[in-house]
């Protein structure tokens, strides 16, 4: 899993920024203040989250209120609630608020939150987000997570490859980045398979639970060629 992005709501956040969730990121920022100076520049434009194929077995689509069972399963995971705004204690009310936050991220122009869905039964098994907070500086972040029932099927790799290709080639984002905890070798291997290159270690980069954690940063430019024999976000 790549760390997600900070929650735009006021108050404490689960914080991240691989931005699996901008709250969830590629990056979301605070919501515009309704009392702000009327001369302030306009905020980001609303975004439309598309539906996309991620190969023959999986698809990406906007979040729906029917995805509450996915939120319930994610809430039971020991790690996902630490790095996203998935509620640590599930309730329908908290899960519905989570889904509405995904809609808000697109509506306020902060990013593209996707549910990852298995094609054969339309069951949602995870989430991936492209977060645009830093797009004015020519970069965006991707974050993702997968529940236990979706792991080991190639779904994370397929989803990351699809969003990466779309961001680089359709949206023409100059740089994409992921933030992954050093112990998470499975997620690191997936990122490298898609073409991301490890660029360094950010010490104490992100709050995870009750402690600051190091994050390895992985980057991919839309001008990059193949890395170590791997194609860059090929179809």
Biggest β-sheet, characterized? Answer: 8 strands, mixed
Q: Please give the count of helices.
A: 5
Low-confidence stretches at least 5 residues in length (pLDDT < 50)?
Answer: 6-38, 227-231
Number of DSSP strand runs: 8
Mean pLDDT, rounded to whole units? 82
Structural class by secondary-structure content:
alpha+beta
Order of strands across the main sheet? 1-2-3-4-5-6-8-7
Q: What radius of gyration results from the CA coordinates? A: 16 Å
Number of structural units classed as domains: 1
Q: Tell me the series of helices and strands, N- to C-terminal.
A: EEHHHEEEHEHEE
What is the CATH superfamily?
Gcn5-related N-acetyltransferase (GNAT)
Pfam family, one: Acetyltransf_3
Protein name: GNAT family N-acetyltransferase
Domain N-acetyltransferase: 58-224
InterPro entries: Acyl_CoA_acyltransferase, GNAT_dom, Ribosomal_N-acetyltransferase
